[in-house]
Amino acid sequence: MICAPSFLSSNFSKLKQEILSINEAKWLHFDVMDGLFVSNTTYDHQMLKTIGEFSNQVFDCHLMIEKPEKYVDNYIENGADYITFHYEASHNPLKLIQYIQSKGVKAGISIKPNTRVEVLDDLLEYLDLILIMSVEPGKGGQKFIPNALDKINYLNNIRTQKKYEYLIEVDGGIQFDTAKMVKNVGCDVIVVGSFIFNQSNRNQIIKELENV
Ligand SMILES: O=C(CO)[C@H](O)[C@H](O)COP(=O)(O)O
Ligand SMILES: [Fe+2]
């Protein structure tokens, strides 16, 4: 699996040092929160610009925002490689997926723990990535909600049957045990925040998570 560290729970007063401490991760996960779709506010596209000055990692942007169609250009212009928006926040998801892809950026969609995975059925053939939330979006450090496993399994089976090519990503409460569980049902990318940033040997932990 690919491990995409989420620096949400890092120390923002020494951000460069924190990002450099996970420099062996190929991906970097940005948690954008607007205080509307979720109650917390984090940062916006300026963060991609700041980190882009010293990182060549794959920028994996998780937009937990209302009206994502109004803001995606900011992320496209500032070096996003993947832009994932929430199904629950979008009015015309297919239009937004195709817009993002027309700009040469990969498009992803995410669903919250209480959203049924079947709502995505008609979108699957168009998507580059599907992000299954295994915690309620809004903050790091929460406990993994096991219904993510059935959703990943469902997406993995459809991908095999229909020869689709999307990546399956999971986000929230991932550590060694839960990483093993999601790997067993076909997950490709794990987002890991607090479990990595609570430790000092971070690059080593990332390697171990990728090979659970
Ligand atoms: O999208 C998120 C929260 O909304 C974060 O990416 C996620 O919570 C990662 O943090 P942790 O590994 O600590 O659960
Ligand atoms: Fe996230």
UniProtKB/TrEMBL annotation:
Substrate binds at S6, H62, G138, K139, G140, G141, D171, G172, G173, G193, S194. Belongs to the ribulose-phosphate 3-epimerase family. Pathway: Carbohydrate degradation. The keyword Manganese applies. It catalyses: D-ribulose 5-phosphate = D-xylulose 5-phosphate. Coiled coil: none annotated. Keywords: Carbohydrate metabolism, Cobalt, Isomerase, Manganese, Metal-binding, Zinc. GO terms for biological process: pentose catabolic process; pentose-phosphate shunt. PANTHER family: RIBULOSE-5-PHOSPHATE-3-EPIMERASE. A divalent metal cation binds at H29, D31, H62, D171. This is Ribulose-phosphate 3-epimerase. GO terms for molecular function: D-ribulose-phosphate 3-epimerase activity; metal ion binding. Its cofactor is Mn(2+); Co(2+); Zn(2+); a divalent metal cation. Binds 1 divalent metal cation per subunit. One of its GO terms (cellular component) is cytoplasm. The gene is rpe. Catalyzes the reversible epimerization of D-ribulose 5-phosphate to D-xylulose 5-phosphate. Its EC number is 5.1.3.1. The active site is at D31 (proton acceptor), D171 (proton donor).
